[in-house]
Amino acid sequence: MGSARAATIVSPALAQSPIAETAVPTSLPKGGASRFAQIHGIRLHYVSAVSGPAVIFLHGWPQTWFAWRKTMERLSLRFTVIAPDLIGTGLSERTPTGYDKRTIAADIRALAGHVAGGRAHIVAHDMGGKAAYMLAHLHPDCVEKLVMVDCLIPGTENMDALRGGAWHYGFHMAPDIPEMLTKGRERDYIAAQIRAWSYDKGAVSEAAITEFARHYATPGGMTAGFNYYRALREDAVLAASFEGRTLDMPILAIAGRHGVGTKLADGLRQQARNLTAVIADDSGHFVAEESPDFFCDQVGRFLAA
């Protein structure tokens, strides 16, 4: 369960990076600022640019807030954009526990309380999408509109490689083995995964991959990332408890044709009262990077409506 302790903002000048080399991220979006907050006693890093209604962007694995940099630049003309490094990633604090999506949802709710007056639009990809799904069910009061991006509802993932499932689930969930086999080759592994999940193999730039990998390659970084997968069994149990409930906020499901395709919308259809579903035809898993014009147009129009 997420802690009920209050969140307090920490001055960027006083906050210290949990990964040592710097507390200042590279290449902030135009008009963006790097900040830290104490969320449930844990240091959370986020980047924000202030303009209009608040939008919180949640990244997935193996990325950081930096995945949203170009999207933030485009949408910051109309929205206040806020992109945290999820706990354990980027410049946010690493913890031994708390990677289940109930706890991550509680962290995001607390962050919204400080940076958005308690309520915001949520745009979430991959593991961030799973946390956003929990947030929408457990704390619907803080979600104005929800955009889920090429992710699967917890419990609906196909983890059986013999039946067309993705092999990496079992690998990432195994204790210790993935850390041992990726040690010293973190960038190679992250790059291979990103390329495998992309339809446009060059959409996520080499520079972006290097930025992600420099964080995951520091001590404990890969473990934190794998812990998001190790929590999936617990996440599935919680998601199953939502059967029969509905989500009343407007929801946009946006997926890559070569990513999860229609599976995201199919999983939401029985729960969402107000669902819009769109597919990016020339995209795999990383829709914001592979189809940026389509993505920003769809998200911008949906949030502004």
Please state roughly what percent of the residues sit in beta strands, choosing from under 5%, 5-15%, 15-25%, 25-35%, 35-45% or over 45%: 15-25%
Cα end-to-end separation: 34 Å
What is the oligomeric state here? Answer: single chain
CATH level-1 class:
Alpha Beta
Strand order of the largest sheet: 1-2-3-5-4-6-7-8-9
Instruction: Give the structural class.
Output: alpha/beta
**By CATH's scheme, which homologous superfamily applies?**
Alpha/Beta hydrolase fold, catalytic domain
Instruction: Give the H and E element order.
Output: EEEEHEHEHEHHHHHHEHEHH
CATH topology: Rossmann fold
Low-confidence stretches: 1-22
Arithmetic mean pLDDT: 92
Radius of gyration, in Å, reads 18 Å
Count of DSSP H/I helices: 12
Overall 3D shape: globular
Helix percentage? 25-40%
CATH architecture: 3-Layer(aba) Sandwich
The number of distinct structural domains comes to 1
The main β sheet shows up as: 9 strands, mixed
Total strands: the figure is: 9
Compose a concise summary of this entry.
With 305 residues, this protein is an alpha/beta fold.
Kindly describe this structure.
- By secondary structure, the chain is an alpha/beta fold.
- The chain has one domain: Rossmann fold (3-Layer(aba) Sandwich).
- The chain is built from twelve helices and nine strands.
- It has helices at 69-75, 101-115, 126-138, 168-173, 177-182, 186-197, 206-216, 221-230, 232-240, 263-268, 287-290, 292-304, and strands at 8-10, 33-39, 42-49, 54-58, 80-84, 120-125, 143-149, 251-256, 275-280.
- It has a nine-stranded mixed sheet with strand order 1-2-3-5-4-6-7-8-9, sandwiched between helices.
- The longest helix is centred in the middle third of the chain and has 15 residues, at 101-115.
- The two termini are 34 Å apart.
